[in-house]
Amino acid sequence: MIKNLKRYIYTSLISSILFVIIGIILIIFPETSLNVLRWAIVVLLMLIGIYSLIVDTNKTWLSFNAFSTDILSIIFAVILIVYPKTLSILLPIVLGIWIISFSSFGLKLSLSLRKFEEINWIIPLLISLLSVACGIILIINPIGSMITITKFIGIIMIVFSVSNIANMILFKKHIENISKYLTNLFSL
Question: What does the domain layout of the chain look like in residue ranges?
């Protein structure tokens, strides 16, 4: 049991350190990180599309639909190569539209709550308005928004990783107690 726990702790520590490094890279080099992501998606789409075209040779209606999807994968990969900003533009716009549509429903619900005097409808209304504003910002400034989102993801990765490292150090100090507890728990 202790051996497995130690392996888990060391694996978790190594992955957390890697996440800290990736988080720092996302914060310092957001545009380069997005470009690497774009190329990873291009390679993945090309590999999936070409592999499926070669392997799937059945002449059924299912293979025709798969053929269409394979062609679309390759076309989207080519679009990402020819127009490098496509991902940085489309992703925030789609996210912005989704946030606005979701928040519009929140606005409608907030306004319906004002009929009831005992319910505070102002806070949900303000939160929904703030969400609509965020969605509009994503649509108006997609590239700047994507860079900000990339940096934010980097910050989240660092915070998660540092807290995970702290947990693993604590767990390592008390590995015998944890091992005894888990052994007793699983022996019941």
Answer: 2-187
